[in-house]
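Batch job 17 of 40 flagged for manual review because the log was empty.
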Amino acid sequence: PSARAVPSLWGGAMHAGLHRIWPRNPWSTRYRLDSPEHVTLRDVGWLSGACVLVRRAAFDAIGGFDPAFFMYFEDVDLGMRLGLAGWRNIYDPSAVVTHIGGESTKSESSAMIRAHHASATTFVSRQHPHWYQWPVRAMVRAGLGVRQAIALRRARRATSARAD
């Protein structure tokens, strides 16, 4: 999908933990907007950075893309900040764009796995910045660290299998 909901802390954690073993779980379905009613023109939380059109006034009003995000979560952050500033993120399923996913990252899969998890950590940390939310940030960092280790191991196995 090219449009998704802005993930809540719980919804994001459940999606991240369950989507591989239970793809149609309710958290992933809600986050990915994977149900029949989501095939119409509609407001969404964010639009994929692979193809997004943004009014210049809106982009400038929120300061554009945040340079703290490299490769991942820059579109989630942009969509969330646009929504918070009163702009709409509208998904139009009649617009068709072919995005060959992973082409810009396939030669650096380990680096991209690390970048993805670093951006996820940054995103969550920005949503929970207060001193009393440090346990949330610590749990997210720990969970993402475990998830990253699993993803890196999976990537190494895939690379070894291709080399054989």
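Reviewer: the log was empty due to a logging misconfiguration, but the result itself is present. The longest strand covers residues 3-4. Unflagging and moving on to job 18.
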